[in-house]
Amino acid sequence: MILLFTATFTILALSSLDQVESSAYDKIVTHSRIRAKNQGPNVCALQQVMGTKKKYFSTCRNWYNKSICGKKAMVLYECCPGYMKLEGKQGCPAVAPIDTVFGTLDLVKAKITQQYSDQSKLREELEGAGSYTMFAPSDDAWEELDPVTSLVSSGNTELYNALHYHMVNKRLLTKDLKNDMTIESMYNKQGLYINHYSNGVVTVNCARIIHGNQVATNGVVHVIDRVISVVSQTIKDVIESNDDLTSLNTAALSSGLLGQLAEPGHYTLFAPTNEAFENLDSDVLERLMSDTTVLQALLKYHLLNSVQCSEAIMAGSVYGTLEGSNIEIGCDGESLTVNGIKMVLKKDIVTSNGVIHLINQVLMPDSAKQVMELIGKSQSIFSDMVSELGLSAAMQSETEYTILAPLNGAFSDETMSMDQRLLKIILENHIVKRKVSLSDLYSGQLLETLGGKLLRVFIYRTAVCIENACMVRGSREGSNGVLHLMRSLIQPPETTIYELLLKDGRFKIFLALMESAGLTDLLKQEGSYTLFAPIDAAFGTLTEEDITLLKSDINALRAILLYHFSNGVFINGGLEGGVTNLLKTIQGNNLQVLSVNLPVGREDILILLRRLIKYMQLKVHPVHHRTNTHTITRVIKGEPSITKVTRVIEEDPSITKVTRVIEEDPSITKVTRVIEDPNVKITRVTNGDPSITIIKGVRHSAGSSLFYKLPIL
């Protein structure tokens, strides 16, 4: 019965807890309690930054990293808010005695606040009837306050007003303190600005609550880490009145943004000082100030549409700016960092519509930079060559263009030793005459370059390619154009597939078969094709008799040859690696292509590659020809133990059926050919080396891609 009652009571208690609204602060305290469960009841685990007095109920990230703001943190175990120790007992088994707000100040060790409350005649109010919230500065907060002496010595009235500004005429627990909330203080109804962050930090005018929810008989006490003062200015007011921000004031006025900074809102402004603007190159500053659109983008990059107090930053996090790009705000000890750089000179200038942090650098978004300024270290060779060859002059700030910048690895020794006139032509074809962002590109699009060439765009499922070169991640958009990063140098096509094959010299058999099938014009005409071209070595297992047999049936020959063509241009970089890419052939069926980027110079890697290539299947059904029906089936299948190649040809007066089955293995190759006829039977066995289908290279031609293949399909 006792067990039943205990279980029932526990369930009811847990159910009632579920119904109570909890905040991020409450959750982080609960996590701290769980981490300290081995220390006894009602104990919380905190982290204290080494070398400081700062203590935090930590997030999981900080807890497991054992650091806060990049500084080592040691673990402390303290009684959770509202509990106390008992002598001889483990943990904190006692509930703290409840007292008035004045008496509670002593309980939470806010003794100086209690002393000043008594001195300023506030004690009577704090012990009287009512319901109050007291944001009580800790003793350390009072000791760190510079003008505390003048505040105390100026008389009880000033001290009374200052303490009244820390009070609200209602009880507000942390769960009631919502993010971006403004509440009226008891001093002339002046506003208190609340922020409640997802990491559990709660701030009042950017002062962090370090001990919350200490309930009193007539209210609640929250201990904060600094003394707060009345907020009367907007961000605009601070910019206009601060002598260190005159350059920012001029820029904000010119951009038309200053008025917005006077309106109600919840902003964070990283405000560059006058010195920060002076550190910019004079020509850059002149260009910025002369373009309202660029200047506005620059200033919006310094603005967040949320209030980020320094005490809420415990690790690096990414935030969206009003400009549209992201910046990373982090911390390094006591310092704030922006995009990983220590640049904050002064933190937490609280205003009625946000907070200001003074910085010693001007943050420059891509949208305020010219395209050439976007080029990074990985494209430095291209940048240097563009300057050396005089192409920079063609890219003026008032002209829009797109740079297709190859990575440094794309420039071989052979390329670098070329005649400068030829090199200039190559580079000109990497500069497009207009601004084309990544989202503007589509398959079949033609882009005109400075060199007068028209480059074709190919869009694939996981890649964007321009002619033979595919992009890598990292496209950036500047004020007058776009930068795209290319994996290799772009080579505009200069000839047809036919001319490429003829000049190469390794495709004599394939070209002869194409001519016999009447398909040579396909290699010469305009269009967009991908050809998987078998070199002469791919026909090595076929005799002249076999070739003659192929040529004797034009429909079958055409079906086989057209199976090597795919409609559309498929660049090697556009094929998705590690999966089978299905390409529809001109013949009508799908071609299965497995793109594996593996080195094949090592035997063990070659064996692995053979295992990865599972199968390719071809089923061809040409049109009916007179009374004959033609069916050609070819299967290539990989097995780990034995390789057999069997070809069977069966004929009768009405039906021709050709079936070829190939199974591969890295050790043994057997070829068996059987020709059955009512009067003749011939069997031939050939032993040879194993083969594997490997794409040996890619050549680019007008309207097409050409892949060299070892075996014939």
From TrEMBL:
Gene3D superfamilies: FAS1 domain. Keywords: Cell adhesion, Disulfide bond, Extracellular matrix, Gamma-carboxyglutamic acid, Repeat, Secreted, Signal. InterPro entries: Adhesion/Biosynth-related, EMI_domain, FAS1_dom_sf, FAS1_domain. Its main location: secreted. Residues 88-228, 232-363, 365-490, 494-636 form the FAS1 domain. PROSITE patterns: EMI, FAS1. Residues 40-94 form the EMI domain. It comes from Cyprinus carpio (Common carp). GO terms for molecular function: cell adhesion molecule binding. Residues 1-22 form the signal peptide. This is Periostin, osteoblast specific factor a. GO terms for biological process: cell adhesion; extracellular matrix organization. It is found in: Secreted, Extracellular space, Extracellular matrix. The keyword Signal applies. It comes from the Eukaryota. GO terms for cellular component: extracellular matrix; extracellular space. The lineage of its organism: Eukaryota, Metazoa, Chordata, Craniata, Vertebrata. The keyword Nucleotidyltransferase does not apply.
